[in-house]
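Record pair follows.
FIRST:
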Amino acid sequence: MRINVVVRVVTTVVLARSWLLCIKNVSILARSVPKSLVPHGQRYRSSVSSYTPGRSASESTSRATPRFSRFAVLGLGLIGGSMLRAAGGGGVNVVGFDPDESNADAARQAGFEVAGSEAEAVRDADLVLLAMPLTQMPDALAAISAEIAPNAVVTDVGTLKAPVHELVRKYLPDSHFVGGHPLAGTEESGFAAADPMLFRSAPWALTIEFDTEITTWLRLAELICDLGAKPVPTTVAAHDAAIARVIGLPHVLAEALALTGLAGGPLGLSLAAGSYMSGSRVARTRPELVATWCDGNPSLVGALDDAIAHLTAARETLSNDGSILELAIAGHDARIDWEHREFEPVEVRDSIADLLEHGRLGGWITAILPDPRQGVRLLGMRPRK
């Protein structure tokens, strides 16, 4: 009888400790996901969160990777300028450069150090951010190739990743490079539009290729978490294919809509309201930027083919006195489903295969935590199955 009682007591204690450990792990996952990191109109499953909105998870814990000591931001437009403001506002040693004197002067007047050349800017920097237009990148890479520190990490913010990877391999073949793309742009441009909060809650693609150093990738991912953004692991090819449909195609359609509305004459333009303004909003973007986002991406051709197929079907239906109700229902459902996706917290292994699978499923990293047993612990969010 005594043995049975002892066994029952021990079993109860073990189960209780296991249950408490499970609750602790769930709480850690929940706390690592600030509500500000969940897209507007979307939900995550856990309701447990003691996290302060607007702060990244890694700000409330010790770091898992070495902190960068000096940033060099080459290009001080919307994205580069916002990075300068965000990093500088956090007490990081930052230096910028921009060949456009208006951007450079604006950054100086805002109190930031601005170098006189790309080479001067990257000297002694352990992180170099390439934030210039793609057309300026070859000259910039050539200028810094002899000055950049051997251990410096290099990343970029370009919309297309394939051409940037090719240029970096040509001019900086031995660099520690990870391609990046913060999806935080607006139709505004220049340092005057820079905002230190621009990256909050924004997806930030970080590429992983066969030669990517996982330690470098994790270091950048933790920095991106510090900015309040959401690092999304992906390959170059997968990124550019996805971007063709959610950036390139919307811009082409916006330009086409703006021209179609113009062709309707003064009366139509006077009657234009919400639908026209929303659909053509991104046509306000600088044309040369739109060209760099679309040109050279073969996946955009396939995306256009799909859009043209939908438009052709609608035209045929209307020309035969039919209704576009079926198309409207399908499009409405697609948009609503996207807005109301549910997400759940997960742990991700720090292997290339697991990170890429996490990204392929629509997931992102929310925190990179130090772990005495396995080095780092990756927490993330993923669409609920």
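SECOND:
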Amino acid sequence: KVEEQVADALALGASCLTGGKRHAAGPLFYQPTLLVDVPDEALIMHEETFGPVAAVTPFDDEAEVVARANATEYGLVAYVVTENGARQARMGRALDYGMVAINRVKITGA
């Protein structure tokens, strides 16, 4: 599924800055991958990606970020990185996800 999502994003105009292929360690491994300028219609923007892929796309304002993030069916976890305390609170309330991490990559203490 990861290969399909990456191929779809590239076909729709995204660029791959690193990775984008299976890892030499074997068929169950995928290279850490960074995709940029990923269009909203790409599969990776609407499906959960259970692999080491980051899809990055530019935005103009906070409202656009929230609308685009909330457009997915699968809102398991969202990550927000900002030093602005008011923005942290707004984003935490606005994102329709099971969990929202603010300035961290680990949700639980486990």
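COMMENT: Helices lie at 2-11, 62-69, 85-94.
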